[in-house]
Amino acid sequence: MDAAEKKALSTKLNALVELKGVVAASKYEITPNAEFRLPRELATARSFLYQDFDWQVLNLCEISLAIAQAEAIDYDNATNTRHYFPPGAVFIRGHELSFLGTMNRVAVILRNAEQPDLWEIIARMQAI
After folding, report:
1. Does 32 score more than 90 pLDDT?
2. pLDDT tens, position by position, 99-114
3. Whole-angstrom Cα distance, residue 32 to residue 119?
4. Residues 39-67: pLDDT tens digits?
5. What are 43's strand-pairing partners?
6. Rounded CA gap, 1 and 16, in Å?
7. Residue 28, beta-bridge partner list
8. Taking the domains of the chain in order of start, what are their residue ranges?
9. Do residues 105 and 61 make contact, with C-beta atoms less than 8 angstroms apart?
10. Are 122 and 88 in contact (CB under 8 A)?
11. What is the dihedral of CA 32, 34, 37, 43, to 10 degrees?
12. DSSP state, 34?
């Protein structure tokens, strides 16, 4: 990824963090030997608590997306339909914070009290 691509991606992630309820956003990659690669300049946050985008969040994203894919395939096969595969996003709601991840390996942390618009956030995430 060259400097111009990094700048464009960083701009999109910063725009995500400006949306109501989004406290951190990141785009990540996985190496062929299943290691996460998170370029520091591609993690953005509006709170110092999230400056180091947690590797656990990225693990949760990847595992949840894999499970969602398997479940979507199973459901579509069992019902002989094609409604759920491929899944677009996974959402895990916690007490104060929630997590949202999309298939293009973009992850965000949400603050529930701000009642974020999940449809808008997912659409923006999928456009990155």
Report:
1. no
2. 899 988 898 989 999 9
3. 31
4. 554 555 555 455 555 667 777 888 888 88
5. 26
6. 20
7. none
8. 3-126
9. yes
10. yes
11. 130
12. S
